[in-house]
Structures are given as structure tokens and as C-alpha cells.
Amino acid sequence: MTDRSRRMPEPPMPRERPPLTVLLASPRGFCAGVERAIAMVEAALRTREEPIYVRHEIVHNRHVVEALEARGAVFVDELSQVPDGAVVIFSAHGVARAVVKEAEARGLDALDATCPLVSKVHAEAAHHLRQGRHVLLIGHAGHPEVAGTMGQVPAGSITLVETVADAEAVAVPDPARVAYITQTTLSVDDTAAIVGVLQRRFPAIEAPNKADICYATTNRQEAVKAIAPRADALIVIGAPFSSNSNRLVEVARAHGCAKAVLIERAADIDWEALEGVRTVGLTAGASAPEVLVKETLDVLARRFDVAVETVTVTEEDVTFSLPKALAG
Fold first, then answer.
1. Active site residue 104
2. Which of 34, 67, 82, 85 makes an SS bond possible with 53, Cβ 3.0 to 4.6 Å?
């Protein structure tokens, strides 16, 4: 297995397939926010005149993006690449208020595919600003969700906290008027450690009414925790820039499976790393489609005598409806 972008050459097929148990994590793969975002692009392609522009990758997965491109979606980095009056969709990660205002000023037909659970965090930031609190955002610099959340409030009213060391050092204008919010795709355990420091340093800090780390991130990490101690190796299917997918690798390593890696698809598997392995864990990040899981299982089955054991930690039934402009 490999977390490098290059495809691994596949060695010759073995004469006999050695036995391999695959511990298949459940839940895995698409979450409700990702399903809604993809459905919004598909609905726009059906009901609006092409081209349909999408600002940034709708979700962090090249397989998904390329499939939508093949159907006519045009992915751009900035609104300046979108012609006046065209249809543009904002990605599931959310955007800053300045981006929304720019779209309005240019008369763009803007559709917002921001995950409702990310929108919840945006609303929390705005609420704390109205209450006169300084906001501490726990998250990763450079991630589009963090950029969108920080862009909900004026510069200087929110501070990014990435690590426990940051939490120990961060200064706020008034320790009695401070709140924290978090990126939705963080490590549950790492975030708890950061929150613990903030609560020790700022006893009056306001917490979210409900944890900001989303249900899908939490559930996928719990599933990995359940299989990692039993696995000789663990494969996470997801994009290199997917926060929730990278966190799954970290969680696996922290819970007993040192040989845990991220791959984009089955062609990335490092077969030499699977020499002598008899139990492999398999999961997928929240933006990775199930077709890539099946592809990986099929490739494993060509080289091993595979027995699949599904390990389920919870059942998910969350759905998000499309906006009225695209419903029907």
C-alpha cells in the first residue's frame, strides 16, 4: 500500500492465493453531506443550461470530480473564472461570506452545496460574534472548510487553533468572553485534547451545544478503532487532501495498526507491503464512493483467497434534502 500519488506496478499473480481476511468497516464512504452535494451538481446538470460551474472540488475525490466533469460540470478555483450570469455551485466545504457577496454582485446563479453540518458551524461563529465573544476555531490551516468558516466573521474576531501547543499559547482579548468551534472532519481524540487545554485555560469558554465534529467523521473513526487492533494492515480509500480520510489513517495507527495507509484507488496498493499479511482492515473516507471499495475488494480477491467480515459499529440513516431550487 502507498500514500504516494504514483500508481504501484502490480507484481505477477501468485500461483496459489494465500488466505486473507478483510475486516470491512461500517459505516464507511459517502456521508449525507457528500451525497447531497453530488446530487445538487447532478440536478443542476439535468435542469439548467450547461455549462454548470463548480467552485473548487465539490468533494475531495478525483473519481467523483472526473465523473461529473464527463457529464458537463466545469470545476474552477475562483469565481473570476465563471462568466457573468452563469450557474455556479459552491462546494460541500463551504465558502466565505465574501465569495457569496461576489457572486451576488456579478449576478451569478449561485447554488450552495455547503454541508448543513458545516453551515451549523458557520452559524455558531456568527452567533458568538453577535454576543461579543472571540472565537477559537479548532482546525487545519489551508483546508477549504476552515477558510470558509473563518470567512464568516470579520478578520481578527476568530483565531485558528491547530494543536495542543497552539491551545497552550493562544491569547484572547477577554478570557471571560470566548468560545470555541471546530472543523467537522477532525480526529475526535485529538480535538478532545485541544478542548481540554482550552477549558483549563479559559474556564468561561463557550462550547457548541452539540459537537461540531460531524456524525460521519465520528462513526468512521469508531469503526476504524474497532478493526485496527485486529488488522495486520489497514487501507483507507480517500483523497490525499481529504481531512477525514487522513484522520482515519492516524486513528488506525494510534489504535494498534502501524501499517495503515491512504490510497486513492486500488491501483495504488503496494503489494510488497502486503507480503505475509493475513488480516487487512478496509474503510473509505466520507467523500469516497462505494465503487472504489468494491474495486479494491475485487483486486484483493485476484491475489488472495479473501474472506470478508463486515464490522459494524452503528447504522446511519441521516439524509439532507436538496434546496427547493433543485428539488423535484
1. no
2. 82
